[in-house]
Amino acid sequence: MNFPKDSIYASPIGEVGAFKFDETVAGVFPDMIQRSVPGYSAIISAIGLLAGRFAREHSVCYDLGCSLGAATLSMRHQIEAENCRIIAVDNSEAMVTRFQQALQKDHAPVAVDVQCRDIREVAIENASVVVLNFTLQFIPLEDRFCLLQKIYQGLLPGGILILSEKLKFDDDRQQELQTQMHHAFKKAQGYSDLEVSQKRTALENVLIPETFAQHQNRLREVGFSSAEVWFQYFNFASIIALK
């Protein structure tokens, strides 16, 4: 399927504003995310497979920060547990509206409830699967522990959290290398130096990455018995946390 091309930062912008998931971004998001996040398609596919493995009868799967619903749809087509439903949440009205429209064309049997809300205000209950797919990095640092603690408490025993994030590195050489390789990846996808530079400026102080050790320590602090990277491509990784 062809999606509109992301050219938001293709022309010089006098003063680059903070990145927002508004109508402009929602209109090109499928192209943007594929060309910006290495391994995105593989992660989305695996989220569906993991949901198929961990979703339980009469439970709830949550997609927190669902954007246009890629992870939700992947889960929806893999879940076979009876009376299992998905709650997909995003605080961008533009994203939610477009996802609801797309959902009308998808006829998989698993029920999906799409909500336009702040994920910090969502109650997590009777959950077998929770997905934070490149979402936590946009949550203020001071709110991340409480959000993960709420997720842990709402997960059923044996439940899973799938946490995908952009990582930073304590070692300066690794940080420089991983950043350079991410930029090389984006340029290989057709982005110009100007686009890479202006997008980076827009995301500064909006997307706050952490090291894997910080994520792992926090996950263990809130109660998860295990938290390990299952996928990494340069400075983008996905973690499986088990209750």
From TrEMBL:
Single GO MF descriptor: carboxyl- or carbamoyltransferase activity
Biological process terms in GO annotation: methylation; tRNA wobble uridine modification
Enzyme class: transferase
Domain Methyltransferase: 63-159
InterPro entries per the UniProt record, alphabetical: CmoA, Methyltransf_25, SAM-dependent_MTases_sf
Pfam family, one: Methyltransf_25
EC number: 2.1.3.-
Residues bound to S-adenosyl-L-methionine: Y40, G65, C66, S67, D90, N91, D118, I119, N133, R200
Catalysed reactions, semicolon-separated: prephenate + S-adenosyl-L-methionine = carboxy-S-adenosyl-L-methionine + 3-phenylpyruvate + H2O
Keywords: Methyltransferase, S-adenosyl-L-methionine, Transferase
Family: Belongs to the class I-like SAM-binding methyltransferase superfamily. Cx-SAM synthase family.
Assembly: Homodimer.
Role this protein plays: Catalyzes the conversion of S-adenosyl-L-methionine (SAM) to carboxy-S-adenosyl-L-methionine (Cx-SAM).
Protein name: Carboxy-S-adenosyl-L-methionine synthase
Organism name: Methylobacter tundripaludum
Gene assigned in the entry: cmoA
